[in-house]
Amino acid sequence: MHSITYFIYLFIALITFSIVYSKKPVDETHCEVCIKTVTTFAETLADDEKTSPEKIEKAFKTFCKKVKVDTKEHRLCYYIGALETSATYAIGDLSKPLAWGIPIEKICRERLAKSNPQICDLKFEKQIDVNSVDLNKLKVKDLKKILSDWGETADFIEKSEFIKRINEVKDKYAKPTDSTKKDL
C-alpha cells in the first residue's frame, strides 16, 4: 500500500516538475535576424505566391539578390541557400513551411535551425546611443566601433583620445536626444 502511495506522489512530482520547466521563456534575440528578415520578405509576397513553395523560393532568391552585401541578412541568405555562392541548399526548409502557413518564429527557430544552427547565431549589433551612455565606461573596442560606423579614422592609442574624438564629431552624426536638447 505504501509503495502505491509513493508512486502516486512521485508521479505527481514529475508532472509538476515537467510543467514548470517546460514553460521556459523564449529568448527574443534567438534567431532575431532570421525572424526579421523572413518577416520582411513574407510581407513582399503577392497573394498568389504565398501558397506556392516554388514561387516562394524564386521570390526569396530575388529578395536576397537585393540585400546589401556584408550584412546579417546577406549572411542569412547565404546560410539558407538563396545565393549563387551558397554552399548549402536549405531553401525548401523555408518555402514549404511558409506556404503551409507555419509561423515564421517556428520556421526559423526549429526548421531552419535544425538544418543549419548558424542561422540562429546571427544577431543584430546593438547601436550605442552616444548621447545617453557614459563614454568612459565603454570599452575601447566599442569606442572604435562608434567612430568606424561614422566613417571617422580611429588611429589612437589611449582611450581618452577616442573619447575626445567622439565628443568632437558627435554633433555631425548623433542627433541630440530630448534630454540633451534641454541642456543646451
Give an account of the 3D structure.
The structure is a single chain. The chain is mainly alpha-helical and 184 residues long. The chain has two domains: 32-121, NK-Lysin; 135-183, no CATH class. The protein is 60% helix and 0% strand. The protein is built from nine helices and no strands. It has helices at 2-22, 32-44, 53-66, 72-80, 92-100, 104-115, 140-150, 159-173, 178-183. Helix 2 crosses helix 6 (104-115) and helix 3 packs across helix 5. It is flat. Mean pLDDT is 83; it is low at 179-184. Residues 132-173 form the ARMET C-terminal domain. It is found in: Secreted.
Describe how the helices and strands are arranged:
Elements: H1 2-22, H2 32-44, H3 53-66, H4 72-80, H5 92-100, H6 104-115, H7 140-150, H8 159-173, H9 178-183
Helix pairs in contact: 2-6, 3-5, 5-6, 7-8
Mind telling me the CATH class of the largest domain?
Mainly Alpha
Q: How much helix, percentage-wise, in residues?
A: 55-70%
Largest sheet: none
CATH architecture grouping of the largest domain: Orthogonal Bundle
| Helix segment tally | 9
The number of domains is 2
Q: Tell me, rounded to a whole number, the average pLDDT.
A: 83
Low-confidence stretches: 179-184
Task: Give the beta-strand count.
Answer: 0
CATH topology of the largest domain: NK-Lysin
CA radius of gyration is 24 Å
CATH superfamily of the largest domain: Saposin-like
Fraction of residues in β-strands? under 5%
Classify the secondary structure makeup into a structural class. mainly alpha
Q: What is the rounded distance between the termini? A: 80 Å
* Element order: H for helix, E for strand: HHHHHHHHH
Q: So what's the overall shape?
A: flat
